[in-house]
Design the sequence.
């Protein structure tokens, strides 16, 4: 059996969970084994049904006072206990922040190897291709373990329902105590409601070519008009023009918008790996040879300070 | 307070990375090396905490002898001690790396007669990106750890019993965790903007006495077969124009994609 660990936040299923189920469904097929899912900290029927729509035959739910909010210790310990008791051949999560964290916590407890961010897995030999450098380099690895603990790279697959079944629910009793509360979320602050950088349908990115902190006002205006968000390159956060939370890249956010409008960004590899999951890319740059221009679907070869206001004006004009 | 920072020597991010002919490792011939970006912020964070509360920063690395450069760099921006566990082999798996770091920490803490109040790891290394070494080490030492940290505060002067409050960036905001000391954190770039070394710092780093530890353990269950570069994403870029008059064509694209 392949067990997929479902990521959710306070009962809201994460897109990462759907990606893990999609990746897991294909892997379970290759293994010729059943797909099951672990839902830790929730037994919400909607989430169970959703896992079923992605092909999970059984959803193991675990609800406990200690699991009322996310905590790496408690969630990792629960997953480790599930592995010991349910004896899956493999366990898969999505390589999001929480997915990798929970899997590493479980692996540490099981003293078992864990291979992070796989994009292809061959279960016959337990060999896999995984991403290094955030995706700019690939590593073929082999795994020698009683249970294969894996995460699939974030956005390695697009989520897609399939193999739909009415999932059975099995409740799991975890052995948890107050010591597992040690790393539970104590408080949370939501600074921005609505569209955020990882989920925005449009991202207006700016690089060094924007020229200054103030230069981003033009990008802000366009992003707001299109219901999107502003992103930036590492050069920009290092210069202090934008907060780090706006950084798109290996050490920042992985975006996956319908369109990424990259202005004044050369497209160094570490930025590219954060942007490559974008469905479409439009580059605005004065350098026709810039990496971002070469890799884009569309490009405008011009000064962004002239083009962006013109685009903003044109959008306003068409909307009347 | 006593803080330990674990850092890794990696090729400078941003460069195009090539692989050796046999795929066993990255081709280092034309690469500059640096400290993995998350960990560079870890060193800065540790130095800032000790500047505010008093204390000492120790930097530990597992790597080739040249990784001493990263320890000296840390000293040039304010770290006090450097410890190197040398390895000539490339591509240690995460379990092996974690076991050796844990052992090194146990050696250092026994000598110090007390645990480090706080151990900082990078959330993941920039190169191999295993996303687990810090968590394995912390678990082995019986200490709590939270990853993805972009803000750290300590209660009291940061020494002995007390708490560490850590902020973790999430989509559109942050989560707050409060950990009892001693504890560990996996930090991310964005924790701070690391300072540049001063002339005085550079001089100081030259005098840093690097402590060498000779430790090893058996490999874990993950083994590297080879490294290779992904197929280049080739795209026929359609040039929409060479000036502001391209705006109409751009908005046509937006309309077509349904994002207008």
Sequence:
């Amino acid at each position: 059996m392949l067990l997929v660990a479902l990521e959710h936040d306070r009962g809201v299923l994460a897109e990462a969970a759907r990606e893990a189920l999609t990746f897991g469904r294909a892997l379970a097929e290759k293994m010729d084994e059943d797909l099951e899912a672990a839902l830790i900290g929730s037994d919400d029927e909607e989430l169970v049904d959703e896992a079923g729509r992605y092909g999970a035959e059984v959803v193991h739910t675990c609800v406990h006072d200690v699991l009322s909010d996310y905590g790496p210790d408690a969630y990792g310990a629960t997953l480790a206990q599930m592995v010991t008791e349910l004896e899956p051949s493999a366990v898969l999560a999505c390589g999001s922040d929480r997915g990798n964290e929970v899997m590493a916590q479980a692996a540490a407890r099981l003293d078992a190897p864990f291979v992070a961010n796989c994009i292809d897995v061959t279960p016959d030999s337990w060999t896999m291709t995984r991403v290094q450098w955030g995706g700019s380099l690939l590593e073929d690895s082999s795994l020698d373990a009683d249970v294969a603990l894996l995460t699939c790279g974030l956005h390695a697959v697009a989520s897609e329902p399939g193999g739909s079944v009415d999932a059975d629910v099995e409740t799991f009793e975890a052995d948890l105590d107050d010591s597992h509360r040690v790393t539970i979320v104590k408080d949370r602050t939501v600074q921005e409601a609505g569209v955020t950088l990882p989920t925005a349908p449009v991202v207006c990115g700016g690089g060094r070519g924007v020229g200054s902190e103030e230069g981003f006002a033009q990008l802000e205006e366009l992003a707001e008009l299109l219901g999107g968000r502003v992103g930036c390159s590492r050069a920009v956060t290092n210069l202090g023009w934008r907060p780090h939370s706006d950084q798109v890249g290996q050490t920042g956010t992985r975006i996956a918008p319908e369109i990424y409008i990259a202005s004044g960004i050369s497209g160094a590899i570490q930025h590219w790996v954060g942007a490559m999951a974008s469905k479409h890319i439009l580059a605005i740059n004065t350098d026709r040879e810039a990496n971002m221009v070469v890799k884009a679907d569309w490009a405008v070869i011009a000064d962004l300070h002239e083009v962006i206001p013109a685009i903003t004006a044109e959008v306003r004009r068409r909307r009347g | 307070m006593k803080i330990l920072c674990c850092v890794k020597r990696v090729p400078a991010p941003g460069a195009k990375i090539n692989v050796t002919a046999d795929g066993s490792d990255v081709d280092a011939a034309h690469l500059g090396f640096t400290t993995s970006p998350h960990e560079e912020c870890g060193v800065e964070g540790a130095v800032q905490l000790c500047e505010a509360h008093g204390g000492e920063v120790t930097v530990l690395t597992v790597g080739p002898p040249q990784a001493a450069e990263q320890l000296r760099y840390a000293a040039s921006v304010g770290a006090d001690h450097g410890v190197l566990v040398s390895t000539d082999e490339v591509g240690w798996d995460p379990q092996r790396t974690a076991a050796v770091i844990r052992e090194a920490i146990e050696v250092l803490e026994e000598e110090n007669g007390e645990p480090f109040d706080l151990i900082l790891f990078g959330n993941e290394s920039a190169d191999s990106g295993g996303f687990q070494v810090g968590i394995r080490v912390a678990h082995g030492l019986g200490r709590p750890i939270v990853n993805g940290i972009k803000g750290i505060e300590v209660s009291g002067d940061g020494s002995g019993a007390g708490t560490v409050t850590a902020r973790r960036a999430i989509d559109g905001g942050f989560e707050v965790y409060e950990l009892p000391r001693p504890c560990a954190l996996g930090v991310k770039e964005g924790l701070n903007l690391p300072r540049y070394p001063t002339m005085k710092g550079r001089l100081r780093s030259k005098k840093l006495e690097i402590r060498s530890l000779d430790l090893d353990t058996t490999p874990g269950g993950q083994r590297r077969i080879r490294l290779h570069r992904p197929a280049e994403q080739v795209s026929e870029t359609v040039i929409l124009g060479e000036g502001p008059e391209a705006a109409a064509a751009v908005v046509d694209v937006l309309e077509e994609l349904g994002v207008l």
User: Anything to note?
Assistant: Residues 15-31 of chain A form the longest helix (17 residues). Residues 13 and 266 of chain A are 36 Å apart (CA to CA). Chain A has two domains: 2-183, 202-319. Chain A touches chain B through 98 residues (CB under 8 Å).
